[in-house]
Amino acid sequence: MQCPSCQHTDSRVLESRAADSGRSVRRRRECLNCDFRFTTYERVETVPITVIKRNGCRETFNRSKLLHGLLRACEKTGLEPARLEGVVDEIEVTLQQRSSREVSSNEIGELVLEQLRGMSEVAYVRFASVYRQFRSVSDFVATLEGLGGGDAAGFSGKEHLAVVV
Questions:
Q1: For range 9-26, the mean pLDDT
Q2: Alpha-carbon distance 91 to 115, whole Å?
Q3: Contacts for 146-155: CB closer than 8 Å, 24+ residues apart
Q4: Chain centroid offset of residue 56 CA
Q5: Got the DSSP string for 13-78?
Q6: Which one-letter DSSP state was computed for residue 148?
Q7: Most CB atoms closer than 10 Å: which of 39, 45, 107, 165?
Q8: Greater confidence, 164 or 28?
Q9: What is the pLDDT of residues 115-152, one digit of tens each?
């Protein structure tokens, strides 16, 4: 490991501990040449996942982009950001365990909706409205009816409209 201060390549490890929920190792090091102390992180290298967007272009999976979308959908719902990071972690692990290194944005959206369904109906509808590109109130009504198993939410059709609008 190269010292950030003097670029000497020999250092000794002072302390090691698990970091990032056990997915990496944090090491405190000391340069044997200049005694400068620094921290390094060791992680398992993962194969990048390519996301195929709706328009056909490809981009590398970006967990922060997914987390940002979740945070926006869950604003003012009382869901803890740490819980949403756990959702992103689960989705990322699911994608890493697949044999294919390519995934469509639709598949990722469905994985998110599957997670949100049990967490918050409001967040579910918000995320679905953007992900599924709702164009009218009837799209919201259909999603609400699907969420509650028809009329299980206790609303009639008119009340659905009043709730959505």
A1: 90
A2: 9
A3: 147/117, 147/121
A4: 22
A5: EEEEEEETTTTEEEEEEEETTT--EEEEEEE---PPPEEE-TTS-EEE--HHHHHHHHHHHTTTTT
A6: T
A7: 107
A8: 28
A9: 888 888 888 888 888 777 777 777 777 777 777 654 43
